[in-house]
Design a protein that fits this description.
This protein has 80 residues and is mostly helical. The protein is built from 5 helices and no strands. The chain has a domain of 45 residues. The model has no long low-confidence stretch (mean pLDDT 84).
Amino acid sequence: MDETAILTEAKEIPLSPEDRASWKAEIAEAIDMLNEQERLVMALHCHEELTSAEISQVLDISKSKVKKICDKTLKKFLSR
């Protein structure tokens, strides 16, 4: 199972208010550990729902670099 599938499945798990607050705090802490380029790529990918090609154009980096950043960042999140 790839990282995106794992994160997609996580949306379906009901969380108590306490667990949700803890989960949000952990995500915020993980995001704070990212460098600026990683934060931008993930924000454009997850929040703005841009494709790798669109992110590549916006940030003026190669599509393969976008994919590497996404993969590396998701692995960072999952290894915590």
